[in-house]
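Technical appendix A lists one of the benchmark inputs used to test multi-chain prediction within the project. The record comprises two sequence entries:
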Amino acid sequence: MSSEFSLIDRIRARIALRPDVVLGIGDDAAIVQVPPGHELVIATDILNVGVHFPAETAPADIGWKALAVNLSDLAAMGAMPAWCTLSLSLPDGDPDWLDAFIEGFLDLALPADITLVGGDTTRGPLSVGVTACGLVPAGSALRRDGARVGDDVWVSGTLGDAALGLRDVLQGRATDPGLRARLDRPEPRLALGHALRGVANACIDVSDGVLQDLGHVCAASGVGASLDPDALPAGAGVAAIQDPDERAALQSSGDDYELCFTSDPARRERILAEARAVRTPVTRVGTINAGAGVQCLRDGVPVDLPQRGFDHFGHLN
Amino acid sequence: MSSEFSLIDRIRARIALRPDVVLGIGDDAAIVQVPPGHELVIATDILNVGVHFPAETAPADIGWKALAVNLSDLAAMGAMPAWCTLSLSLPDGDPDWLDAFIEGFLDLALPADITLVGGDTTRGPLSVGVTACGLVPAGSALRRDGARVGDDVWVSGTLGDAALGLRDVLQGRATDPGLRARLDRPEPRLALGHALRGVANACIDVSDGVLQDLGHVCAASGVGASLDPDALPAGAGVAAIQDPDERAALQSSGDDYELCFTSDPARRERILAEARAVRTPVTRVGTINAGAGVQCLRDGVPVDLPQRGFDHFGHLN
């Protein structure tokens, strides 16, 4: 059985330090430097086995995803990643498991330029908590509460791939590798979030399902939204589903880690140009209105979709 | 069963915001302002049921302790608390349990002037992770790696009370309320840590046991230390134990959340004055030397003490 110290040392040995890290892993706390004129953005998310990922998920994928869901929150704020801490509960101290976990974590941490500066390991059921700190020029962060009546509603990438992959896993079917990658290795939309500062009026990441997340934007902004379910961007696997309600339900299941944002219609060309520049497809899916809540309209006619948004006290249980 | 959102709302409703919080709980991430000329200090610690606290611990005490162990890390750095995030895994969404937990958390957060700015709740075995951010004027943080040959070794308060309280709990005996309070509601030595900036050469909090923690200081500083086990400060319960080895073993069991620090002997009067000013007793217990590791000396004669330091992969299991 490895001790806490050798686990931490194992992690520490693999970390590259950003120049703004004064003191990394190895003291009571880390010391970092926030550049002048910047604000600090702080996100925190836990992943628990059986709740946020299937038990048989590869340790490298767990490492990736634990960081990815937090970087997705930073992306939704338009923040650039800087430092993070890791809280790891493990049933045992299996060094092979830990090495694979760190490998997956670093696969994402290194290109995202985020340094792990602190951690805590403890014995317990598998659970991974990450707190990620990012930086934005003061006053420039994207928020949920800036949506305005008349704004377009956009989403990045495609929706529903992770949910389709998860359905296959839960039903014991062979999963398409592309769908499984969307489930296990979501790509946080950092470049797009950064590009949307000063362009989008409101932004959120699609972790709980697009209906629920757009609902959060509406509630925070004091507006309503209409959404065309058939406009939701779909990858090939989801697009092949014939029943439009089944397709829309998968597309609002969550775990997508795309960005949903609103912007003035006068900025459509600008949005498309910014998105092209960071090689991230974006799609217009609805409009902000003076009402409350999110209404789905198919050819202008209201439709009820099953609200299968992600509730961490219900998912997979 | 409460949903994640009502749990978060329940917490959010109770929080007082510091003026440097631009955006607190309720978006994808929080936004805070680090004052010019300051560095950010980041600590993270998890508490798991059955590992870091007995299963029958009151929820309010769990709330207090989860924050306290992190504030103790900030204290050891000489940092003043600013913001924190909370990651909570709960077997169910019992609102009474959660209200009591928040009560205990805020009992400490409010006087410590730390604002909860983000959180994540999920279903799982009881586990509480806190990441605490503090502030220090740039370059003034206390660290483990500054101990110098000839330094005095000091500890604050008394050692062994929490371990004695825990022993009673584990053996099913009635526990003295004062000992139980040391176990359940440790008081982070924030004022002392702050006062020691520019005075102490190295500092660590005594969470793993004084021998082990002083050993960390020695390893980081490239020095050794001698420690007089009979000089370790004891409360009445621990002092009443006749066997000096049993007493010393309890006193190096950890969970004390006192500060262990080193300082030039020329500063003894200054140390005592600073400690008096913040009403925190301090005791000289040893000396830094040019060797390696920590040696216990009783009347100048080396003695072996059981190294019962706190290993999170072994404690209580």
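The CA atoms of residues 84 and 132 of chain A lie 4 Å apart. The longest strand of chain A covers residues 38-48. Comparable benchmark entries are summarised in Table A2.
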